[in-house]
Write a structure and sequence with these properties.
alpha/beta; 2 domains; five-stranded mixed β-sheet; 8 helices; 38% helix; elongated
């Protein structure tokens, strides 16, 4: 049961929850899905009242929501529909899909752009070379997990070091973290101050997270 009517919320909260009446197969599937999300550090919240407006969904349904658009919180919604292809005359086929509200997505991009302009990145990751770029993605996620309030940006447009440093400076970054062929071989990261007279330093990759504070 799902309703936005405030007069019904007390009744809804006291009603039985669907998740308490899953059969063994469905429960094992659901537990496996949540375990997979946790294993990959994907944050989620369990809504036992969530339903979709079409009746062909099976097992899991989901929504992606935001707190940046007021009451229009849902940006994407969908779920599994493993029986739909067979119902339409085809072979039994596992399937999953979603619908995205383009207008809300555009609004969210606009809000994100405004936030980025008001909060320039503290850290800009400069990566040159395919292996360095792959490592840059890993490093960016580690930093975001360790410092959730820190603004972090990574170059995605390629280019040489000089070009990327110009982008880091234009973005207003305080420091640039440098990954290139030398850093990949030596398992290090270059740290270059962008807003002070400090000198570029080279630090051990494994120690970066524990000492990054001294550069900020």
């Amino acid at each position: 049961m799902d309703s936005k009517n405030p007069d019904l919320q007390e009744i809804i909260e006291s009603a039985p929850k669907m998740v308490d009446f899953l059969d063994q197969e469905s429960n094992e599937h659901f537990e496996g899905l949540m375990a997979m999300l946790q294993e990959h550090a994907i944050e989620y919240s369990l809504n036992t009242r969530l339903v979709r407006g079409l009746d062909y969904y099976t097992r899991t349904v989901f929504e992606w929501t935001t707190d940046q658009l007021g009451a229009q919180a849902t940006v994407c919604g969908g779920g599994r529909y493993d029986a739909l292809v067979a119902e339409l005359g085809g072979k039994t086929t596992s399937a999953i899909g979603c619908a995205i509200g383009l207008e809300r997505l555009i609004e969210l991009v606009d809000v994100s752009d405004q936030n980025e302009q008001n909060n320039p990145p503290k850290i800009y990751i400069v990566a040159v070379g395919s292996k360095a770029e792959e490592e840059g993605f890993v490093l960016a996620e580690e930093l975001r997990d360790a410092y959730p309030n820190l603004s972090i940006e990574m170059n995605l447009n390629g280019g040489r070091f000089k070009q990327q440093f110009k982008r880091a400076d234009k973005a207003g970054a305080d420091i640039a973290l440098i990954l290139g062929d030398d850093e990949m071989r030596q398992q290090t990261v270059g740290v270059k101050p962008m807003r002070s007279e400090g000198h570029q330093e080279t630090v051990d990759r494994k120690e970066l997270l524990s000492i990054i504070d001294k550069f900020l």
